[in-house]
Specification:
Blueprint lengths: L1 H6 L21 H23 L3 H14 L6 H20 L3 H12 L6 H23 L3 E7 L11 E4 L2 E2 L5 E5 L2 E9 L2 E10 L4 E6 L11 H36 L5 H37 L4 H22 L1
Parallel strand pairs: 1-7
Antiparallel strand pairs: 1-4, 2-3, 2-5, 5-6
Helix pairs in contact: 2-3, 3-4, 4-5, 5-6, 7-8, 8-9
């Protein structure tokens, strides 16, 4: 701005009246004089407003100055218009109205009322405003409209919508979001929660329709059936061993009646009975685990995963113990 001060000082905005026309010419001095006076008064007000950082008032005063010489032409008025437009652009930049300032500086860069050094200053300022405009566009929030419909396509009442974990108003609603990714979730007492990740582009509009689905009929997970099946299989093997032990005991009784040694048969039967009881215990543990797993899954317990993990470890330990008993 030091260069601007040396080029276009404040006093340079206030222009002098054009020379009086020669005698006998058309009476144009009075209109020109009134236009210059109105221009100078408006520019003086704009200078005072800019010094007080009241840039909105400065823009209005410079608009009045430009309007005062709107119908005047020639190099004298071209230079006055160019300087007024430049200072108006500076005030617009101070107000962060970069789009208007950019358009005005582009118009000014093609104006015939600029000298070469002044045109260089305008081009430099235009580059700065263009960069500010690009930053503004990149950070411009986008508008997202959220609707919630039931499976029949009708508006869903009672739905709670959260955006990035913060509760929003009842749908439908429109909200302005910063550019980037956002997580939108809808929850309802009668439907399954739905979550979507959206990407908001700078200054863009986006419409999203949330359609939560009704909960599906509950059925036990496959692991529950597998665990229950394993319990049944182990219990069946235990029953088979129990039957074989009974046969060993019966044969031992027959040998005892004949005064023969039956100790080996009795020991073998005892071992089978012990193994059968171990299998019954493992089968019982697996059955209880399957039941707890099913209950945790049915009620949607957030700790269900930990319960299932603990059961899996426990069942694995019992299985190892059972394997060592055979």
């Amino acid at each position: 701005m030091a260069t601007l001060g040396t080029l276009w000082c404040v006093a340079a905005l206030v222009v002098a009246e054009p020379a009086d026309p020669p005698r006998g010419s058309a009476p144009v001095v009075a209109p020109a004089t009134r236009a210059v006076d109105a221009f100078n008064r408006s520019v003086s007000r704009a200078i005072a407003h800019r010094r007080s950082s009241r840039h909105a008032e400065a823009v209005a005063a410079l608009d009045a100055a430009l309007n005062a010489i709107r119908e005047r032409s020639g190099p004298f008025f071209d230079k006055a218009r160019s300087r007024a437009r430049f200072y108006k652009a500076l005030s617009l930049v101070a107000l962060r109205r970069y789009q208007r300032a950019q358009a005005l500086l582009r118009l000014l860069s093609a104006s015939p009322g600029l000298e070469a050094q002044e045109r260089t200053v305008v081009a430099k300022r235009l580059d700065e405003v263009s960069r500010l405009r690009d930053i503004e566009r990149a950070n411009t929030p986008g508008e997202v409209t959220v609707e919630a419909l039931d499976p029949a396509g009708k508006p869903l009442s009672g739905a709670v919508v959260t955006i990035d974990g913060r509760a929003g108003p009842s749908p439908p609603f429109t909200v302005r979001l910063a550019p980037g990714r956002h997580v939108v979730q809808i929850s309802h007492s009668e439907f399954v929660n739905e979550r979507q990740t959206i990407r908001v582009e700078p200054g863009a509009s986006l419409k999203m329709v949330l359609r939560p689905s009704p909960p599906a009929p509950w059925s036990p997970p496959g692991g529950v059936w597998a665990t229950g099946g394993s319990a049944l299989a182990l219990a069946s093997i235990g029953g088979l061993l129990h039957g074989l032990a009974a046969m060993d005991y019966s044969e031992a009784e027959d040998k005892a009646l004949l005064w023969r040694d039956a100790d080996a048969l009795v020991a073998r039967g005892d071992h089978k009975v012990t193994s059968a009881y171990v299998l019954y215990g493992v089968a019982g543990a697996l059955f209880v685990g399957a039941v707890l797993w099913a209950v945790a899954d049915a009620v949607g317990d957030p700790q269900g995963a930990e319960v299932r993990g603990g059961l899996a470890v426990g069942v694995a330990g019992v299985s190892v113990s059972a394997g060592g008993a055979f």
